[in-house]
C-alpha cells in the first residue's frame, strides 16, 4: 500500500503537469506610468470582460492584488529593480517581502510567479552579483511558508543578453555574464521554473538595417525565395518571434542546460510613433498582436522545441503616457483607459474580437476637458434623450466608472439615433468619430452588430460580466484545483 509521502509526491507531480494540460496562454502586462490610471476594480473589470486569464504586475501593488482576489486570473507579481539589492543581501528582507506581498493575498488572489527585477543584467548591471541570491532568498522564504509549489521565481531578461541571436543555432549568452547566467540557470533547473524572456520583434526589425523583411516580424507568411532558414539546422523560421525564442533555447543549451522552458514576459508592437518611427502604426500593431495570439494559442514551440508551448505576455494593457523617450515608448497599450480598445484585437479563448469595425461610432476624446465631458454626458442623457440605462450602477457598461467611458456610451447612443436628422458628434469639441467598435465584453454600443437602444443584458458568451458574475473559467477552476492539490500534498508530506 502506498504511503502518504508517496501519494504526496504523486500529487505534486500532478500539479507540475497542470499548466501543460491547460495549454499555452496569452497574458498581458499592466504598466502604471499612466495619467488617470483607472481604479484597480475597473482594471480588473476590463480584464474579465475580455477573458484575460493571466496578468503581470511590475510591482506588488496592494490595490491591484486585492481587486484580483477571486477573479480566476493568474497573477505574476514583480520585485522592482530598486528592491533587488536589499532582498539579495538580506534573507530577512526577502521573507518580509513574501509575507507582505504574496502570503497575505493567497489563496484568494492566485499569485503564481514572482519576476525578480526587470532586465537586471542590462539595465542595472551592478546588481548582477546579487540577482540570483535575491531569487534564492525569495524561494527559501516561499519554502518556509509552504508556498514554493504554488509560486515560481524567475527574472525577465532582454534579448540584449544574447549578442548574436541569428542564426539561432549559434546563439550564446554574453560571456561577461557567464557566472551569473550559470547560477541563474541552475536555480531555474532546481526549482522547475521558466526562463523569462522579453522579446521584441519590433526592435529586431527596426534596428536590423533592413536585414529582415517586415512580414517576418509581423508573423506574415513569406514567399519561398525569402524563407528564413538556419543554415546549420535547416530549420525554417516563420517569424522573428520564434527565432528569438529559439536563440534563447540554444543559448541555454550552450551552457549545458536543458529542460528549462522559455516564457515570454514581454512582447508587442507600438501603435503610434514619431516622424522617425514609420513602422509604429495601428495597422502593424493590430497585425502583430492578433497573429501573436494565434501563434501562441496553437500550443506549439519553436523549431528546436516543437512540443513546448510559448506562454506569452503582451506589452501592454494601457498606454503609459508618462514614460520618457521616443513617441512610440508611450503607445504600446491595447486599451485606452476608458476600457475601449485601441484597435480590433482577438483576446481570450472564445476568439472574442474587441473593437470590430461595423460602422461609425462617436466616442469621447482621450484628452477632453473633464468638466466639458461632464456637461456633455449630462446633456446627452438629459436633453439629448440618449438611453443611459446601461451606464448606471450594476449595468453592463457601468465599469469602468469614469466620466470618459460613460460619456463615450452616451455620446454614441445620441449620435446613432440623431445623426439622420442632423445630430453631430461634437459635444463642445469633446467627441470624435471612429470606425472601431468601442464595445467590450457584455457592454455593447449602439450601432454594433449585437446592440440595440433598449436595455442591454449581459452576453452569455463571456464567462465573466464586468460586475464579476458568471461561471468560472477553466483557468480559474484549474487554479483552484492546483491550490487544493498543493495544500493536500504539503499536508501529506509533513506527516
TrEMBL record:
<comment type="similarity">
    <text>Belongs to the glycosyl hydrolase 17 family.</text>
</comment>
<keyword id="KW-0336">GPI-anchor</keyword>
<dbReference type="GO" id="GO:0009506">
    <property type="term" value="C:plasmodesma"/>
</dbReference>
<keyword id="KW-0325">Glycoprotein</keyword>
<keyword id="KW-0378">Hydrolase</keyword>
<keyword id="KW-0326">Glycosidase</keyword>
<protein>
    <recommendedName>
        <fullName>glucan endo-1,3-beta-D-glucosidase</fullName>
        <ecNumber>3.2.1.39</ecNumber>
    </recommendedName>
</protein>
<dbReference type="GO" id="GO:0005886">
    <property type="term" value="C:plasma membrane"/>
</dbReference>
<keyword id="KW-0472">Membrane</keyword>
<dbReference type="Pfam" id="PF07983">
    <property type="entry name" value="X8"/>
</dbReference>
<dbReference type="GO" id="GO:0005975">
    <property type="term" value="P:carbohydrate metabolic process"/>
</dbReference>
<dbReference type="GO" id="GO:0006952">
    <property type="term" value="P:defense response"/>
</dbReference>
<feature type="domain" description="X8">
    <location>
        <begin position="360"/>
        <end position="445"/>
    </location>
</feature>
<dbReference type="GO" id="GO:0042973">
    <property type="term" value="F:glucan endo-1,3-beta-D-glucosidase activity"/>
</dbReference>
<dbReference type="InterPro" id="IPR012946">
    <property type="entry name" value="X8"/>
</dbReference>
<keyword id="KW-1003">Cell membrane</keyword>
<dbReference type="InterPro" id="IPR000490">
    <property type="entry name" value="Glyco_hydro_17"/>
</dbReference>
<dbReference type="GO" id="GO:0098552">
    <property type="term" value="C:side of membrane"/>
</dbReference>
<dbReference type="Pfam" id="PF00332">
    <property type="entry name" value="Glyco_hydro_17"/>
</dbReference>
<dbReference type="InterPro" id="IPR044965">
    <property type="entry name" value="Glyco_hydro_17_plant"/>
</dbReference>
<keyword id="KW-0449">Lipoprotein</keyword>
<feature type="signal peptide">
    <location>
        <begin position="1"/>
        <end position="23"/>
    </location>
</feature>
<dbReference type="InterPro" id="IPR017853">
    <property type="entry name" value="GH"/>
</dbReference>
<keyword id="KW-1015">Disulfide bond</keyword>
<keyword id="KW-0732">Signal</keyword>
<keyword id="KW-0611">Plant defense</keyword>
Amino acid at each position: 500500500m502506498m504511503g502518504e509521502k508517496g501519494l504526496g509526491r504523486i500529487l505534486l507531480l500532478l500539479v507540475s503537469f497542470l499548466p501543460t494540460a491547460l495549454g499555452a496562454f496569452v497574458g498581458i502586462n499592466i504598466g502604471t506610468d499612466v495619467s488617470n490610471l483607472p481604479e484597480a476594480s475597473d482594471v480588473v473589470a476590463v480584464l474579465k470582460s475580455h477573458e484575460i486569464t493571466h496578468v503581470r504586475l511590475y510591482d506588488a501593488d496592494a490595490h491591484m492584488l486585492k481587486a484580483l482576489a477571486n477573479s480566476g486570473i493568474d497573477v505574476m507579481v514583480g520585485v522592482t529593480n530598486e528592491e533587488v539589492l536589499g532582498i539579495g543581501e538580506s534573507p530577512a528582507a526577502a521573507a518580509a517581502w513574501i509575507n507582505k506581498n504574496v502570503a497575505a493575498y493567497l489563496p484568494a488572489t492566485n499569485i503564481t510567479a514572482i519576476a525578480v527585477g526587470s532586465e537586471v543584467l542590462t539595465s542595472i548591471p551592478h546588481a548582477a552579483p546579487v540577482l540570483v541570491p535575491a531569487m534564492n532568498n525569495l524561494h527559501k522564504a516561499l519554502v518556509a511558508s509552504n508556498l514554493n509549489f504554488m509560486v515560481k521565481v524567475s527574472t525577465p531578461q532582454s534579448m540584449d543578453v544574447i549578442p548574436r541571436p541569428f542564426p539561432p543555432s549559434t546563439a550564446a549568452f554574453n560571456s561577461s555574464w557567464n557566472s551569473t547566467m550559470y547560477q541563474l540557470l541552475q536555480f531555474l533547473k532546481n526549482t522547475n521554473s521558466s526562463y523569462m524572456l522579453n522579446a521584441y520583434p519590433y526592435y529586431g526589425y527596426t534596428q536590423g538595417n533592413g536585414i529582415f523583411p517586415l512580414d517576418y516580424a509581423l508573423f506574415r507568411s513569406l514567399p519561398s525565395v525569402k524563407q528564413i532558414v538556419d543554415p546549420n539546422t535547416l530549420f525554417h523560421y516563420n517569424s522573428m518571434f520564434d527565432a528569438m525564442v529559439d536563440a534563447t533555447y540554444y543559448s541555454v543549451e550552450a551552457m549545458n542546460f536543458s529542460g528549462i522552458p522559455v516564457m515570454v514576459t514581454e512582447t508587442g508592437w507600438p501603435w503610434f510613433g514619431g516622424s522617425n518611427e514609420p513602422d509604429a502604426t495601428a495597422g502593424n500593431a493590430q497585425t502583430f498582436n492578433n497573429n501573436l495570439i494565434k501563434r501562441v494559442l496553437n500550443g506549439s514551440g519553436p523549431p528546436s522545441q516543437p512540443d513546448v508551448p510559448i506562454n506569452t505576455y503582451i506589452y501592454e494593457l494601457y498606454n503609459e503616457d508618462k514614460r520618457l523617450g521616443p513617441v512610440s515608448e508611450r503607445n504600446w497599450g491595447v486599451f485606452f483607459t476608458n476600457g475601449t480598445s485601441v484597435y480590433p484585437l482577438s483576446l481570450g479563448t472564445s476568439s472574442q474580437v474587441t473593437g470590430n469595425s461595423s460602422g461609425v461610432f462617436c466616442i469621447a476624446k482621450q484628452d477632453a476637458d473633464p468638466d466639458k465631458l461632464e456637461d456633455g454626458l449630462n446633456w446627452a442623457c438629459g436633453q439629448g434623450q440618449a438611453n443611459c440605462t446601461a451606464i448606471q450602477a450594476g449595468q453592463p457598461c457601468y465599469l469602468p466608472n469614469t466620466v470618459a467611458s460613460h460619456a463615450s456610451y452616451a455620446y454614441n447612443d445620441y449620435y446613432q439615433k440623431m445623426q439622420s436628422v442632423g445630430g453631430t458628434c461634437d459635444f463642445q469639441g469633446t467627441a470624435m468619430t471612429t470606425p472601431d467598435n468601442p464595445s467590450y465584453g457584455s457592454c455593447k454600443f449602439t450601432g454594433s452588430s449585437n446592440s440595440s437602444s433598449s436595455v442591454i443584458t449581459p452576453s452569455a458568451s463571456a464567462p465573466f460580466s464586468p460586475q464579476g458574475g458568471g461561471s468560472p473559467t477553466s483557468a480559474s477552476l484549474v487554479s483552484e484545483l492546483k491550490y487544493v492539490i498543493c495544500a493536500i500534498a504539503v499536508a501529506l508530506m509533513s506527516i
